[in-house]
Amino acid sequence: MAVITVLEAIREAMREEMRNDDRVFIMGEDIGARGGVFLATEGFLSEFGEERIIDTPLAESSIAGIALGAAMSGLRPIAEIEFADFIWPTINQIVGEAAKVRYGTEGKLNAPMVLRAPQGGGVRGALYHSQSVEAIFAHTPGLKVVTPSTPYDAKGLLKSSIRDDDPVIFLEHKRTYRLVKGEVPDQEYTIPLGKADVKKLGEDISIITYGLMVHHCLEAAQMASLENISVEVLDLRTVRPLDMESIINTVKKTGKTLIVYEDNQALGIGSEVSALISQHAFEYLDAPVIRLGGPEVPAMPFSPPLENMFMIDAEKISTAIKELAEY
User: Fold this and answer.
1) 94 vs 235: CA distance, rounded Å
2) What residues does 53 pair with on adjacent strands?
3) What Å distances lie between residue 156 and 16, 150, 223, CA to CA?
4) DSSP string over 192-224
5) 63, 244, 304, 312: which has the fewest Cβ within 10 Å?
């Protein structure tokens, strides 16, 4: 058991899968000699060579399109998009094509590809390096969307994503890359896609969240315990498919639910989770389902005070917990 960062866990997952399966290769901007803008593929070029570590031009639509063609031909590409903010040119290739491969061919073809992208704010990235994109892709049947929060989850979920026969959008919050550390087993393991994880048990209020927000929610839950409010924290880990069983179970247990996510609140993942709770667990609710998400602002500002206003943190979550506890 080693204590490593989220970034190291991602690097380990890709290296192990490439060693175990010759069909796996990585493509993206600056991933070769440079090792990627965040060094996720550092050292890979010397180990695996240029045929499996492919530096691409600055052309995200081509990266996604070539990865899709390779996946349909029997390979297992990992396509890195340098920042999630640059993912929009891939929409036709991923939403319009990759998501429909299995359905459109009556199961004769699959698209076993992973599109990795660092996303999220809190790093002074401003308008074009801070976006959260999970809701766009989670809306599309045929895609799986993964949002890990810890090194253990990042490694296990990425290995499962690489082995999956459907296209997976793997979104890594860049603020967790080096700040979040945790124990990761030395032995082989995977985590199934679509399975949430209770990060903290509680009795009074359920928080449903994912990604970086998991850590802020855990901090807020600790703050709440000082006021004798017992908070359960459920980490979705995968936002498509959602783990309905775990969501309903935690709602039944506590009767009060707070959904926390960094993305814009309107029409986000929290909207879908809230609707599902209202439909399938209404009789267990002791209070309205509350969402705490990003404001109605087109993009995250560069100004530190404005960015802080945009970002959800433990203090904002703590305030929401207290308000919900009063119902």
Assistant:
1) 26
2) 26
3) 11, 10, 30
4) -TT--EEEE--SSEEEEE-TTHHHHHHHHHHHH
5) 304
Q: Hey, what are 231's tokens?
A: 């908070």
For residue 155, what are the CA distances in angstroms to 4, 11, 80?
Answer: 11, 8, 16
Are 204 and 245 within one domain? yes
Structural domains of the chain, count: 2
Query: Within a 10 A sphere around the Cβ of 189, how many other Cβ atoms?
Result: 12
C-beta separation of 78 from 14 below 8 A: yes
Domain of 205 in residue numbering reads as 197-325
The answer to the question of residue 65 being in a domain is yes
List residues with catalytic annotation. Answer: 129
Question: What is this structure's pTM?
Answer: 0.97
Asked if residue 191 belongs to a domain, the reply is no
Considering 123, 150, 184, which residue would you say is the last residue of a domain?
184
How far CA 310 is from CA of 86, 259, 313, in Å, comes to: 21, 17, 9
Instruction: Using DSSP bridges, classify how beta strands 181-184 and 2-5 pair: parallel, antiparallel or unpaired.
Output: antiparallel
Domain CATH code at residue 239: 3.40.50.920
List pLDDT tens digits, range 34-68: 999 999 999 999 999 999 999 999 999 999 999 99
